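Notebook, p. 212. Picked up where the previous page left off. The plan for this session was modest: take the two constructs that came back from the sequencing core last week, fold each one, and keep the raw output in the notebook itself so nobody has to go hunting through shared drives later. Recording the first one now, exactly as returned: residue sequence, then the structure token string.
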Amino acid sequence: MRTVELVLVLCLFVVTKDSVAGQDDALYGLPNCQELVPGVLNVHWNLDDTLLDIALEGTTREIGNQYFAFGFSQPGVPSARMTGSTALIGGFVGEQPFALNYQLASKNPCDFATGNGVCPDFAGNSTAPKTTSAKVIQANRNGDTMAIHMTRPLGPTDGKENNAWPADGSQVVIYAIGPVAEFSSLEEPEVLIHRVKTPGVSTATVKFDEPKNDCTPIIDRQVTATAEPPASTDVPEPEPEPSPEPEPEPEPEPEPVPEPEPEPVPDMQPSPPPTEASSGAISSLKASSILMISLMFFV
């Protein structure tokens, strides 16, 4: 009896340990994973209706601005073909991660004016906003290993009818690893020729609608526990310039008060000198006065 109990306990311990290990190995919590190149590139995913939650992890073999690309060849193509395919490309420009939907019109670097080459969906249309339905959720680097967690719709994206992805594995997968041009910007990252690519004879596919997990981790899971800040690839709208404040109207200057005019000062003309007639009259008056005073004392 004790032997049976011991076996049950051991089985329970093994199952629990494997379950925890599986959870720890799940990159960014995504339950499904498929090796594209063993030990070099893995694709992780979770499909929520029509929204694909996807992550790419791998080794870039070099440090700096690098990218991972994953997508599908055109419908009806029997083996992997890069030209004419569509891809989700994620990488780093400096310290900031990016994710964009690309059209692979040719093998040349992108001519953003014409849209020829390996270009984002908005290239070739100068009037189109530089936006994308692909989004960066998390991104991490550790030496020459890198992981990028992104989302994109399964259906047509960014006004392109030919870039819908199948969920049932009916198209051949393409993938690549390579450098990003040093002069790139987050809005227009230019991906250069790949160092790792899908072999032309490959017929591999990925079925998003079926569970699968056969991956060996590449990047340290302790590193991916902390996400680097994602960057928006949308060009920010320019902030409106502040309206100039109206200049205050000048206060009216007070009207000058007229100073009172000075009153004219009358001319002080000197009195004319007395004439001889007036002098005689004055002398007679003085004599009369003296005579009257003398008579009064006499009386």
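Okay, moving on. Second construct, recorded in the same format:
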Amino acid sequence: MAKICFILILVTLTVFIGRLTAQKAVTPAVSSVKGPAAETPKKSDDAPPESPEEKKINKCVQKISRDCAETIYGYIFIKGDHFITVRCCMQLVSSGKECHDTLVNDVLKDFKDKEQRSLFIHKSLHIWNYCSLSN
């Protein structure tokens, strides 16, 4: 049973990191150009519209670099012995508690094991408190 839980967590975290990578790849660079040329390109008409929750998640994903996301959420969902750098703590805190909770809850949304879920929520609060108190 523990092996299945670990595999589920690993797959979910991989999807989360993949979403982070995909979001960073399509996010246009900030430009000093003003006007229509500086506008964000429109999405394809074939793509289904994002739900408000997906928009919120994607907005939060943009606030944390991939390496910090791997470290922070690896700490929560994989193994709790990752060293969290000051830079990653600063990104986490600057993203805000609401974004942190949103990303954690997105990973946990289909997770049924209440004991493991409780552990992950505890670790999520621990890393948030550690980072917010050290900044």
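Notes on construct two before I forget. The radius of gyration is 16 Å.
Flagging for discussion at group meeting.
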